Structure formats: C-alpha cells, structure tokens
Amino acid sequence: MHWAGDRSENMTRTMLSDIDIRELDRDLQILLATNGTLTRILKIIADDEIVVEIINQQIHPTAPEIPDLERLPDSRILQRQTILKGLSSGEEFIAAEALIAMDLLPTAILRKLTETDHPIGELMVASCLEVFKETAEIWEGSCPIGWSRRPKGNHPHTPLRGGII
C-alpha cells in the first residue's frame, strides 16, 4: 500500500536482529523491541534478562476494599507481590503488587499465574488479552516491610522503585 507522497518504493524492509537493536538509541530500542510489558522495557534499560521472584501470592475469595481504587470485580482475587530482578546481576529493580480478578481469566492463563513465576504482562500478551492497569503508586526506597528475603545485617537493601500494578 502506498500513500500520497510515499517514498516506500525506494526503501527495503529489513528485520533487525537483537544485536542490531542493541546498537540503537535506548528510547528507540524500547519502541522497537518491547510490547509494552514492564519486564521487556526493564530488560532494555537494565541490559539484563529480567526474572520474577514471587514474594507472596494469595487467593482471596472476594475483592478487598482498597481506598482510592475503583471497586474490583466480584471475583476471587489473586494478590501477587513480586520482585523483578536481573538474571545475571541479581540486582533488584522493581517491587510490584498485582490484584488479578481470577474468575475473569481463561483457565490456561490462571494456571500459569498460579503455578509458574512467569511475568503477568508476558502471559497476557502471549494470550492476546487486553489489560487494564490502575495508575501506579510510586515509592522509592528499601524493599517493603515483609518482602525482604535477606537475613538482617547481610547486605543493605537495594533501592527499589515500584508500586501497585
């Protein structure tokens, strides 16, 4: 398809390899290489594969009341608290909490969410599901109370940025 003033007849299409993409400006890398999921964006920014460490995962029979948050659907709710960290570096980048209406998801996605540590965004994208996210509440500092896995006095906490997804 050609548009008025289109010069595409003088262009060739080329698929960029991962190596080619890594040589581009970081902002352009993000636009080209990601699908909008946090883990893929973070992978480019950190230049490291990102893994999910599930800190706490609970199933609630009904949606909890959360101030300043729209009422969640009448559904069982999966509450998942995670740390996103670099595979090679081990550096902790983001602490996140997600509240997921379980009864609105296909069984296959629900099983992967409860039985694996796959990133939520990647599961949704792979399943071609549209996702709605509340505006995140952002904080910066040490890992939230109760989320740390390190023994006291072992290492200082890595600063984290995160919030509710």
Automatic annotation (TrEMBL):
It holds the Pfam family Rv2949c-like. It comes from the Bacteria. This is Uncharacterized protein.
